[in-house]
Amino acid sequence: MQNVAPAINLRRRDRTLQLAFVSAVVSLVAVFAAVGSTIPLFNIYRAEEGFTNADISLTVVAYSAATLSTLLVLGRLSNYVGRRPTAIASLGLLVLACLLLLNVHHIGILIAGRLLMGLGAGLASSTLTSYIVDSAPARPTWLASVASSQTVMLGLAVGAIASGALVQFGPWPRDLIYLVVISLLLLSAALVAISPETVTPTPGGWRSLRPSVRVPVRVRHLLPVAAAVFLATWATGAFYQAFVPALVADQLHTKNSLVLGLVFAAYMGSSALGAPVGGRFPPATAQRIGMIAFLAGWIGLITALTTGALPLFIAATVVAGAAQGIAISAAIRGLLYGNTLRDRAPTFAVVYLLSYSGATIPSLISAQLSSIFSVPQIARGYGGLALVATLFTVFGARNPHTRNDKEQPELLATSGTELRVLSGSKPLPSVRGPSAGSSRSSTSLVLDADGFQPRLRGDREPGLGSLEPQPAPVSP
Q1: Beta partners for 420?
Q2: CA distance 263 to 317
Q3: How far is CA 338 from the centre of its chain?
Q4: How many other CB atoms sit within 10 Å of the CB of residue 422?
Q5: Is the dihedral of CA 97, 185, 314, 325 positive or negative?
Q6: pLDDT at residue 302 is higher than 60
Q7: Complete domains list, the chain, with CATH
Q8: What count of Cα atoms within 13 Å lies in the side-chain half-sphere of residue 340?
Q9: Distance CA 3, CA 18 (A)
């Protein structure tokens, strides 16, 4: 008689993984809500403390540089000490940053607070995104890549809107948003603490601190175009952080903090709306579509700045934001193809290294040029970067290779399990390994042709984590 225990354990495992998924998503939203919460306050700091556009740009550079450094050194740490303790440490750094920003009266304090935010965000970027992919449900097929790539944008949008509303209409305009964010971060830490771990701690944590940048060989051919996508889109996000407060106040003639938060959120929030659209296309096609639309958005932005039209500026912002969501999620979907549990943190570290490089380098240059050129002129430079990245993507985008996929059934068939391979709509014959006397004879591994690597359908082996679905293999 077939043992029914594995099915019971499967249901229990799915419930606990759902808790981990929700905790990771909520935590990543909280981290980047904290980062986005400072944006509507920049104009208050400019007006009340005399900070300049160059000063604000330096805070963006400090944040991005701290994030880059953290990703280089700590990007793989969660593979060794576990996702949960690393995630809780990142949330703690954000709490310290918010406490420091409760008393901003000098540019040095603002820079220090943003630097602490960068440390926390860098640690969270590789850890929580990996935790999301570890625990994401198998369906819908695009959920893992979209949730891991777009939760950041959603958090930034939530933080900016909440901050703008509280600054404009709430008491203690310089402090209340930070108190709210601290509460959200502490709640997130509690959720993570009661969630299951997906990585078995192993020795080697100290060795992992040596800077290392790598992605699996099978997807390295995708990296140049992915880099172009990340650099151009995140540079635009940094432009919105550093210069949109001044643009909204000086060029678009409004000092309303909620409007500022909504403008910033229109770019970041619409990114999360555009991302699922990209899941309908192969990664290369989605990147091309996304970057062409992204360039169209930039053309609209530059036109709006030239004419001073706020409605056109917001509409172009939404288009550019949705387009970056399509392009970014497609690029990450390609890079995640075939990833193992140990590949995820290093892969996301590379993703965010490239992303924050795109935020940091243009911000350094524009901070120096802000005393020479006007903000609309600087915007044209960012538009030129979008044009170059779009052309590179259109001509260079490729899909993941599938040449190694045929080897997988032979490997898995020896594990004492049943392997069902589905090719299109026609199931191929089952392949069975030796199951006599195996404690795992009632489990199966399913390889779907619609976009996922095998997902374990029975009890999980200790230390395996969740063998989560990865992006669809599509012939280049």
Answers
A1: 446
A2: 7
A3: 19
A4: 13
A5: positive
A6: yes
A7: 14-197+219-396 (1.20.1250.20), 405-476 (no CATH)
A8: 7
A9: 25
- Please tell me the distance from the alpha carbon of residue 101 to that of residue 99, in angstroms, as a whole number: 5
Bridge-based pairing state of the strands 431-432 and 444-448: unpaired
Give the SS3 label for residue 224: helix
d(CA 451, CA 280): 11
Cα angle 321, 327, 330; round to 5:
135
Q: Are 127 and 90 in contact (CB under 8 A)?
A: yes
Do 218 and 398 contact (CB within 8 A), yes or no?
Answer: no
DSSP 89-132: HHHHHHHHHHHHGGG--SHHHHHHHHHHHHHHHHHHHHHHHHHH
Look at residues 295, 306, 200 and name the one whose alpha carbon lies nearest to residue 251.
306
CA angle 215, 220, 224 (to 5 degrees): 110
Residue 315 CA, chain-centre distance (Å), reads 24
- Closest C-alpha to 443, from 5, 1, 6: 6
Burial 332-352 (b: 16+ CB within 10 A, else e): bbbbbbbbebbbbbbbbbbbb
Q: What are phi and psi of 348, to 5 degrees?
A: -70, -30
Task: Copy the structure tokens of residue 457.
Answer: 């359908």
Which residues make Cβ contacts (< 8 Å) with residue 302, sequence separation at least 6? 376, 379, 380, 383
Cβ neighbours, 10 Å, residue 385: 18
Query: Within a 13 Å sphere around the CA of 173, how many CA atoms are in the beta-carbon half?
Result: 16
Residue given tokens 């990585």 in the structure block: 199
CA 125 to each of CA 141, 150, 151, 347, 427: distance values in angstroms, whole numbers, following the listed order: 22, 11, 10, 11, 38
∠ CA 454-148-82, rounded to 5°: 75
Alpha-carbon torsion, ordered 304, 309, 315, 320, to 10 deg: 20
pLDDT digits (tens, 9 = 90+) for 35-83: 989 888 887 888 888 888 778 878 888 888 888 888 878 877 888 888 8
Which residues does 352 contact at the CB level (< 8 Å), separation at least 6? 67, 71, 75, 122, 125, 126
Residue 336: pLDDT over 70: yes
pTM of the model: 0.65
H or E element at residue 446: strand 444-448
Please give the average per-residue pLDDT across 235-249, as a whole number. Answer: 79
Q: 314: which 2 tokens?
A: 């917001």
